[in-house]
Write a structure and sequence with these properties.
Largest sheet: 7 strands, parallel
Structural class: alpha/beta
Strand order of the largest sheet: 3-2-1-4-5-7-12
Pathway: Carbohydrate metabolism; galactose metabolism
CATH superfamily of the largest domain: NAD(P)-binding Rossmann-like Domain
Number of domains: 2
Shape: globular
Keywords: Carbohydrate metabolism, Galactose metabolism, Isomerase, NAD
Number of helices: 9
CATH topology of the largest domain: Rossmann fold
Strand content: 15-25%
Number of strands: 15
Distance between the termini: 40 Å
Enzyme class: isomerase
Helix content: 25-40%
CATH class of the largest domain: Alpha Beta
EC number: 5.1.3.2
Radius of gyration: 19 Å
InterPro entries: Epimerase_deHydtase, NAD(P)-bd_dom_sf
């Protein structure tokens, strides 16, 4: 297949490209050109600004079997893609997020956010918070695109190559004996590994005919108290968890209520997820 990947030089985007190449696909990566890659001559590279309409139209001078869009954060970005790739793409895979869901306190299913009837408001990334930008981008894709779209809703993605440092935040704070702010240690959260996220994107884009919104998360969840206990055991030090702390000590996982994805739709479609309780303890050990 001829495949275009927006953002394929780090984290799960890089792993996605590696898997696509291993499967024999013809891959082009479109990025800002700020992050080096080690793909050599195996990929074609195009330097773009994702928010620049003319850059997208240049890419759409040719047809693509699949487009992966890991760097769309606003309805304006989505509108530009729809205009540029009209009749030029077989399937458009949009990387969305758990953040589209406003509900809490239970497993969230795809129907809990309906992008097909969500009121569209236009604007750029700076005009919305992260969750609203993702909601509006989904709404634009599903209401206005004339090509098949799948929106992959990921939870927090973790891995050895995670540049955000969210898991390291907790490990470093425990090792340093510093407070960690968590409003509710009994809240449950789900995650997905960067390897599994890449595997899922390959599957949904090149091996599945599924379209529409779909949740993708590892099986099982952790209470935040259990997660902190894993770090305590791995570091040999107690975690100091408080409800109220300084802002710079607030946990990136600090949710007030349970917040995780139901992955039944993807399971029923044929994707087999790994178990969070198998891979997360190993990842914590590797990071210490």
């Amino acid at each position: 297949m001829k495949i275009l990947v927006f953002g394929g030089t780090r984290f799960f985007g890089k792993k996605l490209v590696m898997r696509l190449l291993a499967d024999g696909h013809d891959v082009t990566i479109a990025t800002r050109g700020k992050t080096a890659d080690d793909f050599g001559d195996s990929v074609r590279r195009v330097k773009i600004k994702r928010e620049a309409r003319e850059d997208l139209f240049c890419l759409a001078q040719e047809k693509w079997d699949v487009v992966y869009d890991n760097i769309c954060f606003s309805p304006q970005d989505a509108l530009y893609s729809i205009a540029a790739f009209r009749d030029k793409v077989g399937k458009y895979v949009y990387t969305s997020s758990l953040s589209v869901y406003r509900m809490r306190d239970r497993a969230l299913v795809e129907a809990d956010f309906d992008p097909f009837h969500y009121e569209i408001v236009t604007g750029s990334r700076e005009d919305f918070d992260y969750g609203e930008g993702k909601r509006l981008a989904e709404a634009v894709f599903f209401q206005k695109a004339n090509f098949p779209v799948v929106a992959v809703r990921f939870p927090i993605v973790l891995g050895e190559d995670d540049y955000t440092g969210r898991l390291e935040f907790h490990i470093n704070h425990v090792q340093a004996g510093e407070e960690i702010g968590m409003p509710n240690e009994e809240a449950e959260m789900g995650f997905i590994s960067s390897d599994e996220a890449a595997d899922f994107l390959v599957w949904i884009g090149t091996k599945s005919d599924v379209v529409g919104p779909i949740n993708a998360a590892s099986n099982s969840v952790y209470r935040l108290s259990e997660l902190m206990n894993l770090i305590e055991v791995a570091t040999g030090k107690p975690a100091i968890v408080e409800v109220n702390t300084e802002d710079n000590d607030d946990s990136p996982f600090g949710v007030e209520k349970t917040y995780y994805l139901d992955n039944a739709k993807a399971n029923e479609a044929g994707f087999e997820f790994r178990d969070l309780r198998e891979w997360l303890p190993k990842l914590i050990d590797k990071k210490i």
